[in-house]
């Protein structure tokens, strides 16, 4: 892969543009606001999302999606999941016919319960083997600072997968391949929901036992749902499953965990939404994950609890009481 278009220039899109450029790929980054695109090109910095990080010379930025997509053999999608369908419909006519379409997004569409790769296929008409996902313990700021991290790229076409792995392999970013696209994608979406619960626990003042219990039982419900959707259960023991769950549930950098922490500390939902400037996917996706689980007859008690706290006005204290008083059962 030699030329990538990254849409758009938020925290992760900008960071991943840097990864691609550091791996030797020419990158055009799409920013919605022309002034941000101009500032990125002129200053080599995205001061809105990654202040203090110098962007490589291999990145140019534009506010024109057609210009960003012109000649791209890799199209990277990194916007809030619930906005993908609408945005992609506008971008689709400009996407080169053979380009690989890579989703960095970690959400499930509300209403349709589609994974992002499914939305990409539906909107663009691309064959499923052209669509890939990247998921793992990848907090943007740490990667932008070139702290070592690993990730997983998944695609059903082995040639595209290998090319993708090479296109984003740098001295600080190590991608593994996995053919299980469904499992990788689901792991990324559900961990955001579990991280909300871990944040609530943090906000209530609970410690490591509580977090470890949530991570482990969260992984169990992710794997149950994954299996029902045809994922490989082993994927959930890897970077896109346990790896991402541990990082997100533990890190103060996580927007989902921070959102939950605010609720746990007693902030109202409205105050928390107002205080959250970046995308916390789990707040919306908890509902679609629950819908998906119900459609497949899978029990997801932590996800249910997160929906009650984020949407039905249940208090964090009551949430913990309900999780802990569920019927006792074998592990
Ligand atoms: N930030 C991180 O550490 C990581 C984020 N992700 C995932 O990447 C995706 C993007 O997240 P971030 O870059 O972190 O979010 P962000 O909030 O930092 O940036 C969002 C980007 O989307 C654009 N955007 C917002 N609303 C839009 C709309 N209605 N239409 C078009 N564009 C819109 C913004 O202008 C911005 O460029 C999410 O699915 C997230 O779960 C995945 C791994 C790491
Ligand atoms: O996906 C992430 C880390 O892998 C980022 O998590 P947040 O979206 O909660 O910040």
TrEMBL record:
The active site is at 191 (proton acceptor). InterPro entries: 6-PGluconate_DH-like_C_sf, 6PGD_dom2, G3P_DH_NAD-dep, G3P_DH_NAD-dep_C, G3P_DH_NAD-dep_N, NAD(P)-bd_dom_sf. NADPH binds at residues 11-12, 32-33, 49, 106, 140, 255, 281. Its EC number is 1.1.1.94. It comes from the Bacteria. Residues 180-320 form the Glycerol-3-phosphate dehydrogenase NAD-dependent C-terminal domain. NCBIfam families: PRK00094.1-2 (NF000940), PRK00094.1-4 (NF000942). This is Glycerol-3-phosphate dehydrogenase [NAD(P)+]. The gene is gpsA.
């Amino acid at each position: 892969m030699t030329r990538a278009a990254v849409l758009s220039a938020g925290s992760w899109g900008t960071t991943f543009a840097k990864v691609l450029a550091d791996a030797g790929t020419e990158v055009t980054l799409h920013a919605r606001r022309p002034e941000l695109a101009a500032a990125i090109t002129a200053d080599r910095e995205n001061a809105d999302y990654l202040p203090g990080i110098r962007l490589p010379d291999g990145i140019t930025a534009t506010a024109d999606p057609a210009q960003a997509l012109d000649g791209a053999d890799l199209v990277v999608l990194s916007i809030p999941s619930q906005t993908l369908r609408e945005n992609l419909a506008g971008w689709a006519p400009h996407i080169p016919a053979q380009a690989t379409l890579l989703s960095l997004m970690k959400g499930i569409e509300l209403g349709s319960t589609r994974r992002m790769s499914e939305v990409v296929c539906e909107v663009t008409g691309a064959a499923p083997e052209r669509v890939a996902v990247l998921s793992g313990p990848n907090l943007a700021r740490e990667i932008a600072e070139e702290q070592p991290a690993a990730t997983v790229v998944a695609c059903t076409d082995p040639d595209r997968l290998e090319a993708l792995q090479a296109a984003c392999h740098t001295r600080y970013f190590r991608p593994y391949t996995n053919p299980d696209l469904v499992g990788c994608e689901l792991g990324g979406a559900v961990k955001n929901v579990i991280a909300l619960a871990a944040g609530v626990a943090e906000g209530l003042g609970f410690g490591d036992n509580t977090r470890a219990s949530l991570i482990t039982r969260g992984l169990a419900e992710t794997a149950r749902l994954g299996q029902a959707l045809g994922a490989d259960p082993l994927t959930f023991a890897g970077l896109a499953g346990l790896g991402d769950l541990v990082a997100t549930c533990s890190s103060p950098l996580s927007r989902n965990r921070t959102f939950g922490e605010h609720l746990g500390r007693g902030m109202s939902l409205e105050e928390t939404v107002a205080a959250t400037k970046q995308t916390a996917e789990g707040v919306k996706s908890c509902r679609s994950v629950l819908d998906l689980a119900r459609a497949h007859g899978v029990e997801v008690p932590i996800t249910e609890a997160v929906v009650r706290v984020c949407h039905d006005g249940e208090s964090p204290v009551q949430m913990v009481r309900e999780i802990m008083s569920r019927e006792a059962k074998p592990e």
